[in-house]
Amino acid sequence: MRTILPEKENPALREIAREIPIADIGSVRIKKLISEMKALLAKEEYGVALAASQVGEPLRLFIVSGKALARDGRNSPDEPEKNKELPAVPDQVYINPVVLKMSRTKKEKHEGCLSVRGKWGIVPRAEKTMLSAYDEKGEKSTRGASGFLAHVFQHEMDHLDGVLYTDKAESLYDDTKVHSPEGE
């Protein structure tokens, strides 16, 4: 089983990730990588997404957890009864993602990373973004996002390009046990 490697022990975090050949998407190797990444992400209380680079595989692949996808809707703490009635949102896999559009308007958000533990920062990100990517079945789709999910997409795309949020943060600070579901 792979592990999420810390920044100082993971040269893949600074590499530009390689595309996965379309024919390899259904391979045992890629299926196993996706399965292990989903399992690792599920164990993280505050993590909402994970790039393959974070587990030492410089491949253009990331996963967004179902809890991140549900966050702005039914995971609202104001409606706990509603949350219990609805089934869990499945994790989403993005293979060979490409940014199609990004808004010019930016918003600063609190951000963390599973590869840079113990630190948080304020990072300006585009308010809206649109990606094209393949899923684990090899089907291509386009997904637009705004707010929190757009922020997550940009953080993960940076991982695939060898960039960490600490490179873009306007301010960094130590973790003082104040956690946010916006940590990646």
Descriptive report:
By secondary structure, this protein is of the alpha+beta class. It has one domain (7-174): Peptide Deformylase. The chain is 24% helix and 30% strand. The strands form two sheets. The protein has a five-stranded antiparallel β-sheet. A three-stranded antiparallel β-sheet has the order 4-5-8. The model is unreliable at 74-83 (pLDDT under 50).
Salient structural properties:
184 residues; alpha+beta; Peptide Deformylase; 5-stranded antiparallel beta sheet; 3-stranded antiparallel beta sheet; 5 helices; 8 strands; 30% strand; globular
Concise structural overview:
24% of the residues lie in helices and 30% in strands. With 184 residues, it is α+β, with helices and mostly antiparallel strands.
Tally of distinct domains = 1
As a percent range, the share of helical residues equals: 10-25%
CATH superfamily: Peptide deformylase
**Averaged pLDDT:** 89
Oligomer: single chain
Say how many strands there are: 8
Morphology:
globular
Q: What's the level 1 CATH class?
A: Alpha Beta
Order of helices and strands: HEEHHEEEEEHHE
- Annotation field: number of helices: 5
